[in-house]
Amino acid sequence: MTELDWESITQSLPEQNDSYLTSLKGIRGQIGYFASNVRQEAYEAAYQAYFNKPSIKKRLAKANDDDTTGITDRDVIEEEAKELAKKAYSKAISKQPASMAKFLMEYIRFVRIKPVSANQEPPLCLYDPDKGIYLENNVLIKDLITVINDDTTERKAKDVLYMIARNSTIREINENYVALGNGLLNCQTMALEPYSPDIIVTRRIDYPYNPERQEPTINGWKPTEWLKSVLGNDNELFELTIQILKSVITGKTLERLFWLQGVGGSGKGSFQQIITDMVSESNIASSKVDELDGMNRFGMSALIGKSVVIGDDVQKDVRIKNTSAIFSLITGDPLKIEEKGKTPYTLRLRLPVVQSSNGFPKMEADKEAISRRFVIVPFKKAYQGKPNRSIRNDYLRRPEVLEYFLKLAVETPWQDINAKASQEALAENIRGSEPIIGFVEHFFTNELESEFLPNEFVWYVWGFYTDYYKIKDHTPSDAFHKEIKANLPKEWKSLPYPVTIGVNRNYPKGFYPESDTPFYANRSFPSLRKDNDKRKVINVRGYKLKRH
Asked: Which InterPro entries match (predicted)?
């Protein structure tokens, strides 16, 4: 049988239209259809090219002249053409990784997302025109590779992925956009724009932004009235919750950790459900704050690819030994990520963090950092009797309600809301969960007249403080003063050397216990001389104002 160069035949085919897929719906069928078309065109081109060959035309002419019954040279030529066409069909799309990669890249947009660390592999993502976002989905890409050539091995599929990645540009995620159900939300202008593959976005909220959406009423129930009621009709807290919704929609953390606090049935869980339904369960990282303290080696890896971190019903008084990882998560500072079986790497994850509890964690961090990063939303309504379960299980999950909350969040300007009730709740929680820190804040104020406070006096006041505020704490004296030193206001310092009490004096200079003993403490603070021998000079340690 006469051979033809099948590569020269396929190269002479009309070029494939370079238009990308406008939808990923039924993508396996679409890619299969295009692959079949390419092969069929190669078959027909090879078949026709064989008949157009001068030598074959001569054979055909002779066969026509010698036309007889039975198998003729024309039949032989026909079979030769079919065999050659079949060969062109099978080789139309090469099984080489580079060729399969090139084929997929004609129909699908690929990019690699720029990582933080220079030695980290940029993840390969494909564009989904239906959702307006780039997705990391190597499983789907491997499926498409087997659609093109069904005998592709796992190893060869990885080679195809490698070739696609090496031929895809590295792009940065545009943090100023988030995809909604009907377009891209510009988080700077809060305007809705059409989906665009040129804007690299990986976050998506399935619900659309509808500026015409009116507040729904369901059996006399309204979503904003309900939310205000569970917040004690506090307008500042209501505005704060809308800012939280705006944060989780846009991905802007505001560098705050949002702490929903209240007893069971207060509405905090229902508000958290609004966030979950709006963002979608698949975009939620269900991690409690104590699981993100850096003590769990693989804790942070669960957050990759997620939009929001939600911790439901955090244990009251749970202890967090290391807050640096949690605070880095909301500030966007580099984090160490460790996945099982993989080399640890550094990544910047900036995610809104929302936690709920009926208490407050005990944290080994300075008070200023806690006050700066934590925003408490106190939910004040505790339902009496039988609660209306339709609110959480039905009303709040309806699309029209979620769309209305989304509209409120989009149209409400960014505000730094320091709700009075939130600040009071934070101060109370710090005093209750970290009593020594609360004591420092309460006692070391500008109203003190003393320039020096002996350790014994501070310990003396602490005992009355815990009795008055009904605080159960068994911290020994040494540990107490260690924590005092770590949390002193900037105006005070712990002296590394003792202060002298002179002859015939009960107290050191600059110490005025009569003026600085709080109302709840016994004002008869005893002499610092244990043996009452005023002829001796004694030394005491304590805290001193820096300006003196």
From this structure: DNA_primase/NTPase_C, Helicase_put_C_phage/plasmid, Helicase_SF3_DNA-vir, NrS-1_pol-like_helicase, ORF904-like_C, P-loop_NTPase, Phage/plasmid_primase_P4_C
